[in-house]
Amino acid sequence: MSVRRTDQRAAIRRAVSAAQRPLSVQEIFEAAQAEVPGLGLATVYRNLKRLTEEGFLRTVQVPGEAGRYELAGLCHHHHFLCDVCGRMFDIPSCMGGLERMVPAGFLLRRHEVLLYGRCDGCAAQPEGACVGASGLLGSES
Amino acid sequence: MSVRRTDQRAAIRRAVSAAQRPLSVQEIFEAAQAEVPGLGLATVYRNLKRLTEEGFLRTVQVPGEAGRYELAGLCHHHHFLCDVCGRMFDIPSCMGGLERMVPAGFLLRRHEVLLYGRCDGCAAQPEGACVGASGLLGSES
DNA sequence: CGCAGCGTGATAGTCCATTCTCATCTAGCC
DNA sequence: GGCTAGATGAGAATGGACTATCACGCTGCG
Question: For residues B130 and B84, what is the distance between their CA atoms, to the nearest angstrom?
């Protein structure tokens, strides 16, 4: 038979699909666990790996921390990482002209742009009063 | 007394200074070991940490891998990571207009641009014939 | 030169993210 | 309902990067 439908996998797919931004494994774990109590972390890793291999998900590597996951097949975009809450957001636009930055003889294949700062929620907060990192799904903007 | 001058530390400083690009710990280790045989990896870590705290070095975080080190105090620039040899190079220019990419309400503080592709040396090679990753210092361009 | 103490080398240990193991469970086909 | 292979959950195990430990060596001051 192979590839069975399970509540766990469905919850994981739903978690990533619902968020409009890349989620960390912890975020996915917590979101899916809210739907399927008792869900194990190993199952999350297993399914993330598999959904990625199947082309449903894509990993977003972050400098200095563990990768995050987003839906594969989204059109070209970049990300914004909030210094305060640690959540990552999608940035639809992209400036061109990167080829001009490349030295002669170098072959440019792809690029990553990561913006850092405060998300709208955290920028509005009175400094230390923001929601903690990775403890929730994107419930804003 | 404090802060003694040792051959080990001098070799480490020299390795990073000489390279015109960010070096991984391994690259620094190998380069410094060439000058000071018997050099230990712990010493490299110790000194990198310290040189960073002293403001001599800066770490360059790389998505999905360990950080690299470059001289602090260089003016704003970005990097190019070769898919083949794994070496990282400096890209002096930077396009502006990033503020325009940020959604309303978001506060932009800094940004990272990472270009991927082949460096001039590897782009010229007949595909698989390039020098291996991280096993050498920047001996080119 | 002599001494004090920082620096070093080798290795064990720590910290995390991720994977493996295995007994148990269950989706899907009969 | 019954069966079987794929899935799961819990915890152990792994791997990689980095740090701590500690005995010994070397710098730098007197």
Answer: 7
The answer as to whether A32 is a domain residue is yes
Tell me the two tokens of residue A3.
Answer: 């590839």
Which residue ranges have CB below 7 A from strand C?
Answer: A 1, 4-7, 25, 41-42, 45, 49, 65-67; B 1-4, 6, 8-9, 36, 38-43, 46-47
Q: Name A91's bridge partners.
A: A78
pLDDT digits (tens, 9 = 90+) for A80-92: 999 999 999 999 9
Which phi and psi (to 5°) does residue A42 adopt?
Answer: -60, -35
For testing contact with chain A, the best of B101, B116, B141 (most A CBs within 10 A) = B101
Q: Does residue B92 fall inside a structural domain?
A: yes
* Residue A36 CB lies within 7 Å of the nucleic strand D: yes
CATH number for position B38: 1.10.10.10
Amino acid (1-letter code) at residue B99: E
As averages over each run of 10 residues, the pLDDT of chain B (141 residues) reads 87 96 97 95 97 96 94 94 95 87 94 94 72 41 37
The C1' atom of D3 and the CA atom of A45 lie apart, in whole Å, by 29
The answer to whether the CB atoms of A62 and B67 lie below 8 A apart is: no
Decide if B17 is inside a domain. Answer: yes
Helix axes B41-53, B7-18, angle to 10 degrees: 70
Domain that holds residue B98: 7-124
Model pLDDT for residues A101-123, shown as the tens digit of each residue: 999 999 999 999 999 999 999 99
| Total domains present in chain A | 1
Is residue B68 assigned to a domain? yes
